[in-house]
TrEMBL record:
Keyword Nucleus found: no
Recorded coiled-coil stretches: none
Organism: Dactylosporangium matsuzakiense
Protein encoded by which gene: suhB_2
GO biological process, one term: signal transduction
Gene3D superfamilies tied to this protein: 3.40.190.80, Fructose-1,6-Bisphosphatase, subunit A, domain 1
InterPro entries named in the record: IMPase, Inositol_monoP_metal-BS, Inositol_monophosphatase-like
EC number, as in UniProt: 3.1.3.25
Family membership noted in the UniProt record: Belongs to the inositol monophosphatase superfamily.
CDD domains assigned to the protein according to its UniProt record, in alphabetical order: IMPase
Protein name: Inositol-1-monophosphatase
Keywords: Hydrolase, Magnesium, Metal-binding
Cofactor(s) needed by this chain: Mg(2+)
C-alpha cells in the first residue's frame, strides 16, 4: 500500500469512530457549551470530545505526527505528517439535530494534502480521496457535474459568524443570485465540497473558511475533476475557496471577482 492509501485507511477508521461518538452524544442531547469568535459561533461538548478522540487515536497509531484541529489548534511543529481535523463540521446543524454534519480529516505531507475523508456522521455517508487516486463515495468513483453554463448552475455557499462578514457575503449573494439557477446553504463546508465532487452541487464558493473546513473536502472535489482555488491565481484559503468544474469555475471566478467577494471584513 502506498503512503497516501495507508494514511487514508487510518483516517477512515478514526473518522468512523469519531462519527459514532458524535451521533451517540447527539442522541443524549446537545447543548452549546461555549461560543468562539462571536455569540453565534457555538461549540458543544461533542466538538471537543470528538477532537480529543481523534487526537488520541492518531497519537496511538502514529506518535510522530502532529494534529491541527478546529477546537485545540496545534500542528505548527515540523512532522512527517500533519493531520487537519474538523471534529464536527456543521456544528449548528448538529446543535439543531439537522442530519448534515461531518467529521473532516485530511493528511498533509510536506504541506500537500495527500488523503482526505469526510463522513456525514448523521447518515454514515463517506467521501474519500487520495492525491492522484481519485475520489469516491463508498465504492463509487466520483465525477463533477457536466454543467457548463453558470446561469443553469446550482451553487453552494456558506456564511461566517461575524455580522460584518455576513453583510458583505449577503451583498455578494445579491449580485450573484440573478446569474445562477439557485443557491444552497447546506451548513457544512466539507459536505458542500463533496457534493460538488459528486455533481449534486454544480459549484461552491465561500469566504472565511479555515483549513479544517476545506482540506479534506477540497481534495475530494479536486480528485473528482473540480478546480479548487482562491481568487486571482491564489490557492484556496481564508480569502476564498471556489470549487467547480473548469468551465463553470472560470465564470464563477470572474463574477465573484467583479463582486469583490474576497473583500470586506
Ligand atoms: C462552518 C460550516 C459552515 C460554513 C462556516 C464554517 P463549523 O464550520 O462549515 O457551512 O459556512 O464558514 O465555519 O463551525 O460548523 O465547524
Amino acid at each position: 500500500m502506498d503512503q497516501s492509501a495507508e494514511l487514508l485507511a487510518l483516517a477512515v477508521s478514526v473518522a468512523r469512530a469519531a462519527g459514532d461518538l458524535a451521533t451517540r452524544m447527539r442522541a443524549d442531547g446537545v447543548a452549546a457549551v461555549a461560543t468562539k469568535s462571536t455569540a453565534t459561533d457555538v461549540v458543544t461538548a461533542a466538538d471537543r470530545a470528538v477532537e480529543q478522540l481523534v487526537r488520541d487515536r492518531l497519537r496511538e497509531a502514529r506518535p510522530g505526527d502532529v494534529v491541527f484541529g478546529e477546537e485545540y489548534g496545534g500542528g505548527q511543529e515540523r512532522a512527517a505528517v500533519r493531520w487537519i481535523l474538523d471534529p464536527i463540521d456543521g456544528t449548528v446543524n448538529y446543535l439543531y439535530d439537522i442530519p448534515v454534519y461531518a467529521v473532516s480529516l485530511a493528511a498533509e505531507v510536506d504541506g500537500v494534502v495527500v488523503a482526505g475523508v469526510v463522513i456525514n456522521a448523521a447518515t454514515g455517508r463517506e467521501w474519500t480521496a487520495t492525491l492522484g487516486g481519485g475520489a469516491y463515495c463508498g465504492d463509487r468513483r466520483l465525477r463533477v457535474s457536466g454543467e457548463t453554463d453558470l446561469g443553469q448552475a446550482l451553487v453552494g455557499t456558506g456564511f461566517g459568524y461575524a455580522a460584518g462578514r455576513r453583510l458583505h457575503q449577503a451583498r455578494v449573494l445579491t449580485g450573484l443570485i440573478g446569474h445562477i439557477r439557485d443557491i444552497r446553504r447546506i451548513g457544512a463546508a466539507s459536505i458542500d465540497l463533496c457534493l460538488v465532487a459528486e455533481g449534486a452541487l454544480d459549484a461552491y464558493y465561500e469566504k472565511g473558511l479555515n483549513p479544517w473546513d476545506h482540506s479534506a473536502g477540497g481534495l475530494v472535489a479536486a480528485e473528482a475533476g473540480a478546480l479548487v482555488t482562491g481568487l486571482d491565481g491564489n490557492p484556496p484559503g481564508v480569502d476564498m475557496v471556489i470549487a467547480a468544474p473548469p468551465a463553470l469555475h472560470a465564470q464563477l471566478h470572474d463574477l465573484l471577482s467583479k463582486l469583490d467577494a474576497s473583500g470586506g471584513p
